Model the fold of this input.
Amino acid sequence: MTYSTSRPITLAFEHVSVRFGGLLALNDVSFEVAEQEIVGLIGPNGAGKTTAFNVACGFQRPTSGTVSFPELGKRGLHPAQLAKVGVARTLQGVGLFNHLSVLENVMAGAQSRPGGGLWSSVMGLPGGLRHERVLRDEAMGQLERLGVATFAEALPGGIPYGIAKKVSIARALMTRPTLLMLDEPASGLDEQELDAFIQLIIELRSTMSVLLVEHNMDFVMQVVNQLVVLNFGQVIARGTPSEISHNPDVLAAYLGLDE
Amino acid sequence: MDWWRSFFRQESTHSRLIGVTALAALTLAITFVLPPVANSELAGGAAIAIVILGLSWLIGWSGQISLGNSGFMAVGAYAAGIWAHHHNTTPLVFTLALAIVAGGLSGLIIAIPSTRLRGPYLAGLTLAFAAAVTPIAQNFTSVTGGEGGIFLNSLVTPSWFGHLFSGANAVINANAQWTADLAVVVAAVSFFFMANLFHSRTGRAMRLVRDNDVAAELMGVDLLRTRSSAFMIAAAYAGLGGALYSLLEASVRPETFPLTLSITLLTLMVLGGIGTLSGAVIGGIIYSFSADLVAHVNSLTGVNPTSNLGANMQGIIFGVLLILTMMFAPRGLVSLRTPIQKLFRILRPRRQTPDLGELH
Done:
């Protein structure tokens, strides 16, 4: 519990608890994600990782405590508002729009940007069209960056899982996030894809903070600066990967060792 | 085929404008050779096509179902009718604009509770609305004229147009063609705006919400606003179509907007193809022919048109058409375009034609 950083804080959990009836899904959880930092949220199944994610992006209101975005000067936002202030999240699985082409899926990431309202849409005003062209180019750029541009016209149902995963990340990047939240990004990727993905995440750090939930420990250990370990809704450890890998509490939680 | 493709595929506004104008001009040219009865039927079909397009947008693009479109039509028709009845000199454009606003507002009111409902519950709520509108119109006699409705004579054929006609039935011919031309122009304008909407950011927001509302919300799409604006637009189109239809009929009556009309609209939309411009055109054309078709089938089978069976012949024909369409062209008659295009490709093998997208 000794982790600290001098950089500005992007996301802060302060004493967050979430109760579902009799179940305390999160119990007094506090941690921060600093600017240009990659934080991994790990823990056994049912530890509260997904709940923490849902609280962070406004799908779930905390029973007590606060979630804030100090750098953005915001707290207690709805999911749709979060996209506007620069918080992007990928969903478990891929969560793509099945009837839209890959390119349109990525363009959808820019949906929260201003411009192109109802009136300009109906009238087909030139401004809106220019806007669409710019988005199209930018989305194509994101697909190229992730090496999946050849799939631009395909429908998500017809592409391999690893590619779909990259498309969902391209879509998240399209929101120009300051905080990128990745829900199990490594699942379903093979060795080779994983190596490329690790490079990408590390590259992203120069422009944004990343909070990720992940089961693949090899992957997590290679990319994160800070680990937050949850068990039964409580933070049982925080620290750098090397600190965590030697923490007896964490080993006990993961390996099921009795003390 | 190039103008046709630009109408349905291109992303620039002026190519859509050219496409719609070309199609409208062609239709206007046809009205010059059609007999007056056919022109009247064409006018009705154009008005109904506007309503179908709104419904197609709602169901195909935003993924919400409405069985209340006959109700929205009635709201638009009564708003325009009551106004025109008291202010006979009002320009037609204003009367139609009033119908759009009234229809849109009624859609918004229905949308607010509706956006919380899905599937059959939403269908039920909109159905209840459509069911309520007719009795209100029948009983609120002081405003709506009750069963008898409101008589309208707002559609006056301008004298310059009348001068184009001569001969024994000059007045009848001129009137029928004027209503057809007017309806085609109004429909063309409506189709142009919807074509813009389809390819816009707003159109994409609809499809995001339809496909995956959780992901859409994460993209910053306001679900409530998106769903209710879809309803509002569909209802505004229904209001306009309903008003136009009543103006063509020269009266607004409750019996024009029965509950079964909502079902007919839905059937026509599915027959044409959900979520497409050309599907709505096809739906309107089928509607234009339906009265003739019913009369023809009745006379062929020897069924008395005033009998119970004869009176329901339209439903039977639409039902059979629907089953056949679902069997042979599950995505609507519009999907038959693909085999036709293949044929064109065979005829002109050197030319490469890209595949059409999923929905257009």
